[in-house]
Amino acid sequence: MVNRLAQSQSLYLRKHAENPIDWWPWCDEALEAARSENKPIFLSIGYSSCHWCTVMEGEAFSDRAIAQYMNSHFIPIKVDREERPDIDSIYMQTLQMMTGQGGWPLNVFLTPDERVPFYGGTYFPVEPRYGRPGFLEVLQAIRRFYDTEKGKVEAFKAEILGNLQQTAALSGVTAELNREIFQKGLELNTGIVAGHNPGPSFPMIPYAELALRGTRFNFESKYDSKQVCTQRGLDLALGGIYDHVAGGFHRYTVDATWTVPHFEKMLYDNGQIVEYLANLWSAGIQEPAFETAIARTVEWLKREMTAPTGYFYAAQDADSFNTSEEVEPEEGAFYVWTYAELEALLNAEELAEIKAQFTVSRSGNFEGKNVLQRRHPGKLSDTVETALAKLFAVRYGGNPETVKTFPPARNNQEAKNDSWPGRIPAVTDTKMIAAWNSLMISGLARAAAVFGNLEYLELAVTTANFILENQWTEGRFQRLNYDGQSAVTAQSEDYALFVKALLDLHQASLTLENGEEAKQLPNSQFWLEKAVQVQEEFDEFLWSVELGGYYNTAKDASGDLLVRERSYIDNATPAANGIAIASLVRLALLGQNLEYLDRAQQGLQAFSSIVQDAPQACPSLLSAIDWYQHSTLIRTSPDQIAGLISQYYPTAVFQIEADLPEGVIGLVCECLTCKEPAKSQERLLEEILQSQTRV
After folding, report:
1. Cα separations (Å) of 598 from 366, 544, 548, 604?
2. Residues 455-468: what's their mean pLDDT?
3. β-pairing, 315-316 with 428-429?
4. Quick one: what percent of the chain has pLDDT higher than 90?
5. Quick one: average pLDDT of 490-517?
6. Alpha carbon distance 607, 581 (integer Å)
């Protein structure tokens, strides 16, 4: 017997289709049922590759006693946070208000009338453990509280709703975003990247990217920003968070030493990390492990994460099966190695080199098995590369040169029942998410520009074209695509990140203008025109005329929300408003349209109080301030651009200038003012650097 979720397009929702719980998707019918029956809503939010979401599905949500009580006393609603990040954002914020912490699965209890939460938590076990009560006990207590403590419920509701509305509107007070605020924000955010916390280690790329921007200034600071950024790159490229056998980055490590990952691989992390490592290289931090990690991540992307139609899949699970007879998958099974396996697979020289270069031991570093983590930077020896290729063959059933594509397991049944030449792979969530694809396009475009790699650019172009050709329904941008069917109206992160991706493609394509490659790919002007078109739609449906900045959801797609939020806090992905404001500055430079610059200024003023009071919450907004204060337009020839674009000028855009005066090799403009025409390479570089660091 299956429930309503069996017909969902979402892999995460379908994973709950056989639960005895009478799940509803988020829809008007479910919300009306709660109102008419006066039942509290149990709202549960997660995503397909979330380990603890999977655990709770197999435990509490599969328990018949829990389901019987749930079905009688609540309206249970399941939401895929990757489909509806707007819903997830609101209720994650309320959970943090109530408990001081958050995470997934996100489970909150809502009043049936206004959908305001009055209790919440994350993982609930079936029986009491981990210091948490059993889930049935929680359900019974919540229902008693709702029935007998109406006054307290109303008080909770009023407090939560008031806080939400206040947070959504911000204070209304603006601050002057001067150089001191920018400098303070740089230092605080660099400190976050430099910090050594005892808990899990996350990439935190929005913070690392801002810290890297600080390397070009001579600010007094307690941190050596270049050293901090280099170390973050090494942690990523050498750590267990990176899959040294087959490429791609896991979501985070559970420890402070970057050793043992939570094994899911998310597209959004990989796009950001590729861009960050490419930027490190362009800034002169040319560690061979960075180039290798980028190249092999792109190979993983092509092999396992690219749909036949050209877009990128969303994620791969942390868990997989060792054998088809297993009932439940095991965390990390696809990725880890026993010492006995390594002894059997490798010859003595290879094993000795692997032990010298990686954290490999008989006892292992993860439940008796080994996660590979490099001990040293630099280029790996041929012996180590041969050993890694042998491990690859065990996983995939062939060597890296022959296994160019590896079909996804779309669900547990496919994983267990299909015949795999190597290990049983983790399940892949094959939906297309516009925002996440955009992050990967940006990463590929930047790596293409830095390394002069046409293949990276071609891969990015194919995906951008897929979005342009398939993600507009009745003239509106759509967030998702399921096997050729677009779905869900785009949200601010989709617009903001896709506009950025189009601008990044515009810049990377400039170097092809005079080459044979230009005949095969769209020219740079094509991408700029598309960016302007998407920005116009973004402005029409999501810009806040009253407050400034962009709402998370369009004005005609937010009727089911408690509040209309404007994203300004960075999480695993950058906040939409920070990215959007930076793009407005870029568009102003490239199109000489001052309306974009005015809108960027309004957006920065809208969030100026949060930048002043809590700069550590919003590194992307600080990056946008950097763009606004140090925006630089470089007008020169394609040959000059080819040499300059691979260097690190984080607030510069390039434009081809066909009619330079005689003897002039480039023009450098600071927003509305141009410098003296540069007649030598030395002078051009000097003017660019001055513009990038000006007061």
Report:
1. 53, 14, 11, 10
2. 97
3. antiparallel
4. 85
5. 89
6. 11
Q: Which two tokens stand for residue 267?
A: 């597209």
pLDDT at 278: 98
Alpha-carbon distance of 191 to 419, in angstroms, equals 49
**118: Cβ–Cβ under 8 A, 6 or more apart, which residues?**
40, 109, 110, 111, 145, 146, 153, 156, 157, 160
Cα–Cα distance measured from residue 393 to residue 374, given in angstroms and rounded to the nearest whole number: 20
The C-alpha angle with vertex 292 and arms to 289 and 295, in degrees rounded to 5, equals: 150
**Nearest residue to 352 (alpha-carbon basis) of 374, 376, 383, 379:** 383
Chain Cα centroid distance, residue 212: 18
Judging by beta carbons within 10 Å of its beta carbon (0-12, 13-18, 19+), is residue 68 exposed, middle or buried? middle
Question: In terms of Cα–Cα distance, which of 165, 163, 45, 14 is closest to 109?
Answer: 45
Which stretch of DSSP H or E encloses residue 90?
helix 85-99
Q: How far apart are CA 78 and CA 190, in angstroms?
A: 38
Residue 409 has pLDDT above 60, yes or no: yes
pLDDT tens digit sequence for 24-45: 999 999 999 999 999 999 999 9
| Pairing label, strands 261-262, 666-670 | unpaired
Nearest to 240 by CA among 213, 185, 203: 203
DSSP string computed for 354-402: HHHHB---SS-SBTTBB---BSS-SPPPHHHHHHHHHHHHHHHSS-TTT
pLDDT, residue 515, reads 59
627-668: pLDDT as tens digits: 999 999 999 999 999 999 999 999 999 999 988 889 999 999
**In the predicted structure, residue 518 carries a pLDDT above the cut 70:** no
